[in-house]
Amino acid sequence: MFLSTESPSHSVRATPFKGGELVIVGGESHKTGIVKVDGDRVAAFRDDDGVVHSVSPICTHLYCQVGFNAAERSWDCPCHGSSFATDGAVIEGPAVNPLERKEL
Question: What distance in Å separates the CA atoms of residue 30 and residue 24, rounded to the nearest whole number?
Answer without folding.
Answer: 7
